[in-house]
Amino acid sequence: MSIYDLIHETFLSVTNNKVRSSLTILGIVVGIASVILMVSIGQGSQAAITSSIEAAGSNLLIVQPGGRTSGAFGGGGGFGGSGGGGWLGPLILGNMLGRQSSGGGGGGTGGGPNGQKRRSGCGTIILIILVIFIIGIIISAISSSSGGSNITTSTVQREPLPKGSVNETGYYTDKLGWIKSGTTLESGMKHFYDKTGVQPYLYLTDNVNGSNSPTQAELQTYAEGLYNQLFTDKSHLLLVFFEYNSNSQYMDYYVVGSQAKQVVDSEAGNILLDYIDRYYYDKSFNEDQFFSKSFSDAADRMMTVTKSPWIPVFIVLGVAAVLLIGFFWWSNAKKQKDLEAKRREELLKTPLEKFGDTEAEELAKKYEDKDKL
To answer: Cα–Cα distances in Å, from 305 out to 248, 288, 300?
Structure first.
């Protein structure tokens, strides 16, 4: 099936089932909006909490005990008492997160809330693109696998009849005067013949045994009798198409010979009738193209088992899940790495004068008492 045929069938399926298409579109819109909303709320909450923690400060104390030295920390006397043998005062660093040194400490580092917002916005955009991409693949997979929701699926692997099974005849009888290009019509019917080994025959009429309003039973009897008149084998498919005028409903009925039933069973026959019904209402086709494409597409579908559309859907969802997990893992690892780098930079930039003498003296005495013991 070509790209044009796929797009055309998708368009027909959408326009012929307006209510279902509207509900599907609504579901997709609501789904995408829900995903975007949930992700935005989560990222917004995370950014707000991180910002609050950084603004409050961490009150982190990092203590590094020093060895004895001849000098004292901060001038004469030091923490260890007066004289020569004092402690090298402990290095106490506190209130790192979210704080910038005032005075000569220099400006704050990058990667704060603004950087987080940029990363969050980028992640949201990537997620939206990924969701739209997944939905597009799912729709394409379903369309290409099912070939239209109103066409009977092919569940049986069929083999064409062997060569020489058919006593070949013509391809159509037109009592309605519809067929303007026999070549166009026969191209699709010959394709049907090549794929199935069953030669199709189209019979167009506006009366059944003189009646312009036959019943389905009368059309069936007429078609069965006509088959015996037209063919000398049991390997033909006869499609009788009745329409009295453009204001009346059409009727159709197909008959297959006993040998042709090996290929064109009831399921395959329904596939042909479904395509007839689909393209009959497509005004972009004239009568020649309408019947030709119906036979051609029906042959392709009935000779191939229709794959479940959910198999490619599950594959796509699995790949998407792996990509999403990988993306979030990478995003969290990058945030953690940036946060650690920011903390190290702020620790290195913070001057010792910013820490209180009382805390330093208490820790110095604590280490002195331990040393005496």
So the answer is: 35, 28, 10
| Strands of 88-244, DSSP E | 172-174, 199-205, 236-242
HSE of 354, CA atoms in CB hemisphere, 13 A: 19
Q: Which domain holds residue 14?
A: 3-146+320-372
The answer to the question of residue 79 being in a domain is yes
Q: What is the pLDDT of residues 188-226, one digit of tens each?
A: 999 999 999 999 999 999 999 999 999 999 999 999 999
Give the pair of three-digit tokens for residue 54.
């950084």
Burial class (CB within 10 angstroms; exposed 0-12, middle 13-18, buried 19+) of 277: middle
Closest to 265 (Cα-Cα) out of 302, 231, 300, 218: 302
Domain boundary among 272, 302, 332: 302
Angstrom distance (rounded) from CA 268 to CA 276 = 13
Average pLDDT over residues 327-355: 76
pTM of the model: 0.53
Place of tokens 């609050």: 52
Say if 157 falls within a structural domain.
no
CA 15/CA 10 separation, integer angstroms:
9
Integer Cα distance of 17 and 371 in angstroms: 87
Can you tell me whether residue 373 is helix, strand or coil? coil
CB proximity list for 257: less than 8 A, separation 6 or greater? 227, 231, 233, 234, 235, 236, 237
> 10 and 91 in one domain?
yes
